[in-house]
Amino acid sequence: MRDPRMSSALPTAETGDLASSLARTAQAIESLLDALLSAAPRESEIARPEPLLSAMRHGALGGGKRLRPFLTVETARLLRGDAGQALRAGAAVELVHCYSLVHDDLPAMDDDDTRRGRPTVHKAYDEATAILAGDSLLTLAFDVMADEATHPSGEVRAALVLALARASGLGGMAGGQMLDLAAEGRFDGGQPRSLSEAEIRRLQAMKTGALLAASVEIGALIAGAAPEARTALIRYGRALGAAFQVADDILDIEATPEALGKATAKDQDKGKATLVSVLGLDAAKRERDRLSADAIAVLAGFGPEADTLRAAARFAAERTN
Question: What CDD domains does this protein's entry cite (predicted)?
Answer without folding.
Answer: Trans_IPPS_HT
